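Incident log, support desk, overnight shift.

02:14 A customer reports that sequence design results differ from what the structure should imply. Their input is reproduced verbatim below. On-call engineer (initials T.W.) acknowledged and began investigating.
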């Protein structure tokens, strides 16, 4: 297949008849053709539709390369080309299109068609045995890793490492889904929102400028210390129709934390910092995941973490916190105000003592206070750690 052939295909798709849909990648076709039921022998996907999977991979690879070279080109034409090839019976194009088109109904249709045409990765992972999923994940199949992570459980760190490795390899082949997975695994899974994560997120957005990829890029930019760039990305997402991103901004929080914050949730986020850190463990990596939540899920998390955190003691509720102390040492302030064994006199003493302590002394004090008041809800209640693990995996599956 020549590059000129693919350019001709994209031109034809961009000049589609008035009846065809042009939704910026939202939905590229309303066709109801049966797999293998059309296309013509002179089309670049014909060999794939005839059963030559390698030809389909070459067709998709060429489309990806053209997309990266010309990211400002009409994305609807790119999506339309994949849909036309899928409707002709090219399973590889169906699977690619399912991840390149973000309108839910059309994406599901393409995914189902891909499964029907023999694309194993497109078939429902819920029907696969757990042992087989582990094997598939280890072999580098992203969809298997995504499914395992979306269910939570043990072995999260190893799974995230596999996602980053597999995603990076797929990203090298210009697979937008692989780029997004690698960026999310590195930033949210490992808590490392560095230049490598940024490059992967940026490439994912260039290849497939979906709302999910734009939000991912903004997240990595925000947690990588690029607040202005994150806000610009959110503005682009807003202009492209993602209304929720119109309300978000990258904002600095105490303890050198950052978050994508909706204006009316600013106070909620400010209060999160000390309470989240009281939970113990690697909670710094929670923030990208929490920033990805919609309003309903964020409110659910806020209610959950209240359940796992003792309320303010009577002395703590009445204590006057010195100016700037809560911003500088939110964990200790929250721990002291919630400790059932610390009276007003002790709270006042520690508030004055904290700034003079070493980091080691402050950490030891926080651990001691946490051990005094830590409590567990009734059996069956999901923990904040488990909530974040599940949310992190669910977000990965949505990229």
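02:41 Re-run completed on a clean worker. Output:
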């Amino acid at each position: 297949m020549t590059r000129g052939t693919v350019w001709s295909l994209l031109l034809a798709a961009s000049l589609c008849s008035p009846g065809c849909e042009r939704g910026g990648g939202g939905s590229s076709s309303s066709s109801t053709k049966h797999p293998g039921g059309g296309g013509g022998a002179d089309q670049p996907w014909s060999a794939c539709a005839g059963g030559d999977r390698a030809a389909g991979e070459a067709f998709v690879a060429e489309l990806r390369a053209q997309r990266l070279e010309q990211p400002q080109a009409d994305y609807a034409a790119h999506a339309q080309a994949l849909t036309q090839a899928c409707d002709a019976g090219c399973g590889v194009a169906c699977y690619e299109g399912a991840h390149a088109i973000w309108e839910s109904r059309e994406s599901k249709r393409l995914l189902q068609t891909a499964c029907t045409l023999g694309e194993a990765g497109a078939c429902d992972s819920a029907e696969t045995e757990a042992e087989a999923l582990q094997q598939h994940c280890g072999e580098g199949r992203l969809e298997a890793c995504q499914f395992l992570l979306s269910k939570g459980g043990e072995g999260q760190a190893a799974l995230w490492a596999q996602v980053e490795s597999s995603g990076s390899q797929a990203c090298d082949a210009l697979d937008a889904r692989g780029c997004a997975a690698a960026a999310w695994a590195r930033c949210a899974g490992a808590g490392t929102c560095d230049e490598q994560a940024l490059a992967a997120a940026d490439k994912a957005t260039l290849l497939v400028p979906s709302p999910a990829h734009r939000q991912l890029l903004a997240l990595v930019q925000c947690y990588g210390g690029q607040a202005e760039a994150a806000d610009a990305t959110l503005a682009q997402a807003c202009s492209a129709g993602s209304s929720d991103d119109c309300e978000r901004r990258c904002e600095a929080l105490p303890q050198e934390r950052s978050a994508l914050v909706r204006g009316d949730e600013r106070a909620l986020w400010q209060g999160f910092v000390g309470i989240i850190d009281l939970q113990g463990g690697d909670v710094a990596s929670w923030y990208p995941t929490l920033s990805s939540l919609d309003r309903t899920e964020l409110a659910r998390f806020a209610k959950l973490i209240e359940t796992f955190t003792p309320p303010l003691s009577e002395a703590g509720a009445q204590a006057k916190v010195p100016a700037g102390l809560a911003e500088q040492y939110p964990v200790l302030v929250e721990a002291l105000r919630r400790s059932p064994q610390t009276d007003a006199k002790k709270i006042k003493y520690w508030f004055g003592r904290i700034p003079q302590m070493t980091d080691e002394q402050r950490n030891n004090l926080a651990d001691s206070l946490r051990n005094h008041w830590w409590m567990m809800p009734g059996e069956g209640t999901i923990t904040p750690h488990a909530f974040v693990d599940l949310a992190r995996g669910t977000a990965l599956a949505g990229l």
